[in-house]
Write a structure and sequence with these properties.
elongated, 13 helices, 43% helix, Arc Repressor Mutant, subunit A, TTHA1013/TTHA0281-like, 4 domains, 10 strands, 14% strand, alpha/beta, 4-stranded mixed beta sheet
Length: 288
């Protein structure tokens, strides 16, 4: 075997990948060629040196790459030093880890939830609401997803809005279905209140954890769900005031102040506009 052929097989010889016949031929050449034998020694030395360079990263670096979690009752909370990353109700830790991994998450480590984040999660679950959620959003969220999730945080506690309303607010009036998808994929429910978004046709609609829990969350916040569902069956979407000529969503704080004798139900924006009513500036039920 020639020197060039031997030198191309040096690394394979070192790692044990050569077949018996080739291995025997290479060893025979090395015994008679000091130059090639020296090259093999150099490769062994280099490989050994490279192994010494491989070290585990410091714990501080590993911890910086890991997200933390804590279980509050039946609710799992994943968080980073920037804020909340995931909230899941029920299930096992293995299911939590799988969901976290599916989002491209790194290692999960148990840790105590910072008090500020704990208060936000507790307030959301108890129906007190969260004014400015502290969330560590994924970097790969689309512009639509960011806009929708940001809009959800601006829906007042004790009130609901429709999917089409959210679509209009983010400047995508035809993206009603896309808005529903973003709400369904909200990784920080309760704190980012996707439960406050309902179908325009009435009722509370679907929810990742079931309509029953959605009803419960809304009732904790002060929403009269039965009245909302009754209006839905009657196809009433808006409530106007005879005195102010202003029309609102039924759960709007201003609509709740309207006396029974002054309440005017409307099934659509066109009907309200034709009768001289203008949309509430606070809840913005529709564009004038």
């Amino acid at each position: 075997m020639q020197c060039r052929s031997v030198l191309t097989r040096v690394d394979a010889l070192r790692t044990g990948e050569l077949e018996a016949g080739e291995r025997s031929a290479v060893h025979e050449h090395l015994r008679s060629c000091p130059s090639c034998d020296e090259s093999v020694s150099d490769v062994d030395t280099l490989a050994s040196s490279l192994k010494d360079l491989i070290t585990a990263p410091p714990r501080s670096c590993r911890d910086a790459l890991a997200d933390s979690y804590e279980q509050l009752g039946d609710v799992w909370v994943v968080f980073s030093d920037k804020g909340l990353k995931m909230i899941r109700r029920g299930g096992t830790f293995e299911e939590l880890r799988a969901a976290h991994c599916a989002r491209g998450g790194c290692t999960l480590k148990p840790a105590a939830l910072p008090e500020a984040l704990r208060k936000q999660v507790t307030a959301a679950l108890e129906g007190e609401g969260v004014t400015k959620p502290k969330v560590d959003w994924d970097d790969d969220l689309s512009e639509l997803e960011r806009d929708v999730l940001d809009t959800l945080t601006k829906i007042p506690r004790g009130e609901v809005r429709t999917y089409e309303w959210v679509a209009r607010q983010v400047g995508r009036p035809k993206a009603v279905r896309a808005v529903g998808t973003v709400c369904a994929r909200n990784h920080v429910p309760f704190v980012v209140p996707c439960h406050r978004v309902v179908p325009a046709a009435g009722g509370v609609g679907n929810y990742a954890y079931g309509s029953a829990l959605k009803r419960e969350l809304l009732e904790r916040e002060g929403v009269d769900v039965e009245a909302l569902e009754r209006l839905g069956r009657e196809r009433v979407r808006y409530i106007g005031s005879k005195t102010s000529k202003i029309v609102c969503f039924p759960t709007c704080k201003d609509a709740k102040r309207i006396r029974d004798e002054n309440r005017v139900p409307f099934r659509g924006a066109e009907e309200a506009l034709e009768k001289g009513f203008r949309p509430c500036r606070r809840c913005q039920p529709f564009a004038a």
